[in-house]
Design brief:
Layout (H helix, E strand, L loop, with lengths): L1 H55 L1 H4 L5 H26 L2
Helix pairs in contact: 1-3
């Protein structure tokens, strides 16, 4: 009887150690992918900001976008950024 209890305790200890190890690995993966998501979204936003700024200086640098194109670019980019952010963060921090 005592050997069975000892085996159960050893199994529970082993299981707890594995769960702790899994949580530590999950935390490291979350940090890594949260950082990568932040970098991607920052670069994406900077690129869109560059296009909008270039459109603002259209006479100086000879870059012209119509108003409807600019509005749809900003709107779709904003939707993409928010969508990516929500999907990744929900997955990482559920």
């Amino acid at each position: 009887m005592s050997t069975q209890i000892t085996k159960d305790i050893d199994f529970n200890i082993s299981l707890n150690r594995q769960e702790i190890s899994d949580r530590i690995q999950d935390r490291e993966e979350r940090k890594k992918y949260a950082y990568r998501t932040f970098i991607f979204l920052s670069i994406f936003t900077a690129f869109i900001l560059f296009i909008v700024t270039a459109a603002g200086f259209s006479e100086v640098i000879n870059f012209n976008l119509e108003g409807t194109v600019l509005i749809s670019l900003i709107t779709s980019s904003f939707a993409s950024v928010v969508g990516i952010f929500i999907l990744v963060m929900r997955y990482l921090f559920r």
